[in-house]
UniProtKB/TrEMBL annotation:
<dbReference type="Pfam" id="PF00498">
    <property type="entry name" value="FHA"/>
</dbReference>
<protein>
    <recommendedName>
        <fullName>FHA domain-containing protein</fullName>
    </recommendedName>
</protein>
<feature type="domain" description="FHA">
    <location>
        <begin position="228"/>
        <end position="279"/>
    </location>
</feature>
<dbReference type="InterPro" id="IPR045962">
    <property type="entry name" value="DUF6382"/>
</dbReference>
<dbReference type="InterPro" id="IPR050923">
    <property type="entry name" value="Cell_Proc_Reg/RNA_Proc"/>
</dbReference>
<dbReference type="Pfam" id="PF19909">
    <property type="entry name" value="DUF6382"/>
</dbReference>
<dbReference type="InterPro" id="IPR000253">
    <property type="entry name" value="FHA_dom"/>
</dbReference>
<dbReference type="InterPro" id="IPR008984">
    <property type="entry name" value="SMAD_FHA_dom_sf"/>
</dbReference>
Length: 305
């Protein structure tokens, strides 16, 4: 946030942000925060404070993660960490809210002690708190790690497993929760990060095909080279998806990596999404059988054969 443009005020157990410039306030995002599907956010009320916009946050009976961590045993803390990742994924699936507007400092991630339900602080303002999704993910990992490192059981292998999973190249915040990561050991098969289920570690080479779910007629794009470009241009793309004007000429590409595959957004005009989360351009995101890739508003399912 721009220095001096947003200031924080404590209001007993609650707190508020004061906006120096009222034009920074985004009414559409504010309304979305109050939808039933946004129960992962702290309740926020817009008020006036000396003629300025005040965003007042009601913490109710919740405690900051930094404090709640001290009250949880190992199993409970692993559950809290998993719940945080689950709720981050729900933010990405909302479609109207942005991860880049979440304050994810350890003292601003709120936990209901009775249920371990997570609630985030969302700022409906024009200014982003994070430059991009990559920075958001790095910040989140850092805050969670700092919180665990203050615990007496910080050396428990299950915490190491958790941070190993979310620190893997290609892991992103749309991946599903890993609260069961404590069951992973050196002899177990790896976990599918999107569905928290075990998958075979002995996969041979597979063919990757994208099957259209929204085109007027059936379209199957089978990856036939190391880097397979998909777009609407018959000259620039290996796999042509010309049925939608919203798909870019070179929209994204599927790259083969060992026995697996990954998707990369090629700085498309209307974005590429993996299981509901928008991808950061130029970054590889591993895909697996059943995943949904959205190009602009067109969905394709990954089929491994």
């Amino acid at each position: 946030m721009r220095d001096g443009m947003i200031t924080e005020e404590q209001c007993g157990e609650n707190f508020a942000y004061i906006l120096e410039d009222k034009t920074d306030f985004l009414i559409t995002e504010y309304k979305m925060m109050h939808g039933q599907e946004a129960d992962f956010l702290l309740k926020c009320v817009k008020m006036l404070y000396n003629g300025k916009t005040e965003l007042y946050y009601d913490t109710k009976s919740c405690l900051p993660l930094a404090i709640q961590s001290g009250a949880e045993d190992t199993e409970g803390m692993l559950s809290v960490l998993g719940n945080i990742l689950h709720e981050v994924r729900r933010v990405t699936e909302n479609g109207f809210l942005s991860l880049l507007k979440l304050d994810i400092s350890a003292d601003k991630i709120w936990v209901d002690p009775a249920t371990r339900k997570i609630r985030f602080v969302y700022l409906p303002v024009a200014e982003r708190l994070h430059k991009d999704v990559v920075e958001f993910e790095e910040h989140l990992r850092g805050e969670l790690k700092k919180t665990v490192e203050k615990r007496s059981d910080k050396d428990d292998k299950r915490f190491a497993d958790f941070f190993q999973i979310i620190g893997r190249p290609g892991y992103s915040s749309e991946d599903s929760d890993v609260e069961k990561c404590g069951s992973v050991d050196e002899t177990s098969t790896p976990y599918s990060l999107n569905r928290n289920e075990k998958v075979s570690s002995q996969r041979g080479d597979q063919t990757c095909t994208l099957v259209s779910l929204t085109a007027g007629s059936p379209i199957r794009l089978t990856v036939t080279k190391q880097e397979y470009v998909i777009g609407k241009s018959t000259e620039q793309a290996d796999g042509v998806a010309g049925f939608s004007k919203m798909i870019s000429r070179r929209h994204c590409k599927i790259v083969k990596r060992g026995s697996g595959y990954a998707v990369v957004d090629l700085n498309s005009s209307n974005g590429t999404y993996l299981n509901g989360m928008q991808l950061f351009p130029g970054r590889e995101y591993p895909v697996k059988n059943g995943d949904i890739i959205r190009m602009a508003i067109s969905d394709f399912q990954i089929v491994m054969e």
